[in-house]
Structure formats: structure tokens, C-alpha cells
Amino acid sequence: MLTMNKRMRLYITMSLLLLILSWEAHVLMPVQATDEQAIPEESIRLRILANSNSPVDQTVKREIRNAVNAQITEWVEHIKDIEEAREIIRENLEDLNEIVAQQLAAAGSKESFQISLQKTSFPTKLYGNRLYPAGEYEAVLITLGDGNGDNWWCVLFPPLCFLDFSNGDAVDHEQETEAGRASQEEPGNAPSAEKEEDVQVSFFIVEIFTNFWDKLWS
């Protein structure tokens, strides 16, 4: 039979083990991108191509981005149906033309521009731990001047333009393949560097518990 002292030790040991396992499960839980970071299948994007990468042209692009995004968000923020959002944007393209023209005039720019709602090519982007594949996506496309500068894009509907997807990393074909494999094998997991860190944390916890166990029963 177990003595009272041994029973107490066993009770303490089991309690600590459960506590450690519970904590470890929480710490090592795969990092999931929030729902707000996921681009829904039915979405309308905004893509703005700057005339060039000069500081002036990039500043103009940002001013137009802010004005257009604010206006479209006001139109669609309470809309749930993409067909309705699409129709509202299409019916108000002339208003968007006026907004862009006003911003260019305010900046003293005489650049030409084009605005359309169409299927637009997007490169592959790695945003956080989500891979957004290259493809043709519906978007409000604004081309300023020659359209040779860095572009900016976000999601207009549903309104996600508070997330700057343009700051994600461009991914070449080889990286896309590797990221795709990682996504298929371990969906939702954080990058590999974090996995290695998780393993180290796990071993560290095991080592602590082993040392504690030895001291407790010695």
C-alpha cells in the first residue's frame, strides 16, 4: 500500500503533469489566421497602379487609395450580397472617376487615369501564414498614368481594406510550390521557424518535468 507521503507525492505529480500538458497544448496550438485575414471566395478587390515609383507618384497613389476606399466602404459596408455590392460599384464608377480626378488636381498632377470593374491579374502573395495564389480576380482597377509604379491592393467587399495585403511577400513559382506543400501537409500552421521553436519548447518542458520527477521521488 502507498503511504500517505507517497500518495501526496503522486497527487502533486499528477496535478502538475495535467497542468503542464494543458499549458503546452495551449502554447503549441497552431497559429490560425483570423477570419478577417482570409479573403472570401466572393470578394471584390481594389488595385491601384501608380504612374511610377517616384515619391510624388506614390504619394498621389496613397491619397487616391484613401479617398476611393473611404467612398466604396461607405457604399458597401452594410451590404451582405456581392451582387448588390457589384451593382452599386458599377453604377457609381463615374463618382469614382470624379474622386480620382479631384485627388490628382489637388496634387497638381495632370496624369491621365483609367478606372474599371473587371477581372484583374494578381500575383501570388504570402500574407502572414496564408498563401493567396496568383490568378484573375474581380477588382476595381485604377491605373494612374503609365501604371509602371508599385501597386497597392486590398479587399473592398467585404470591407477588409484595413488590412494592407500589398505588404505581403511576393512569392515566386518555387516558393509557391513549397508553400503549397506546407499548406497541404499542415494547414493553418505557422512558418517552419516557429515549428522548430515549438519543438524546442516541448523538449524543454519534458526536461523540466523529468528533473522534477527525479527530485520528487528521490
Strands, count: 7
Q: Summarize the amount of helix as a percent range.
A: 40-55%
The average pLDDT value, as a whole number, equals 73
Largest sheet descriptor:
4 strands, mixed
Low-confidence runs of at least 5 consecutive residues: 26-36, 168-204
Rg computed from alpha carbons, rounded to a whole number of angstroms: 26 Å
Q: Tell me the overall shape.
A: elongated
Q: Strand pairing plus helix content: what structural class?
A: alpha+beta
N-to-C SSE string, H for helix and E for strand: HEHHHEEEEEEHH
Region (Disordered): 173-196
Pfam families: Spore_II_R (PF09551)
Protein name: Stage II sporulation protein R
InterPro entries: Spore_II_R
Task: Give an overview of the whole structure.
Residues 173-196 are annotated as: Disordered. It comes from Evansella caseinilytica. Pfam families: Spore_II_R. Helices cover 50% and strands 19% of the residues. The chain has helices at residues 4-27, 55-76, 82-91, 93-106, 173-185, 192-217; strands at residues 44-49, 113-122, 125-127, 130-132, 135-144, 151-157, 169-170. α1 (4-27) packs antiparallel against α6. It has 6 helices and 7 strands. β3 (125-127) and β4 (130-132) form a beta hairpin. It is elongated. By secondary structure, it is of the alpha+beta class. It has a 4-stranded mixed β-sheet with strand order 2-5-1-6. The protein has a domain at 44-121 and 132-167. Mean pLDDT is 73; it is low at 26-36 and 168-204.
Structural key phrases:
single chain; 218 residues; alpha+beta; 3-stranded antiparallel beta sheet; 6 helices; Stage II sporulation protein R; Spore_II_R
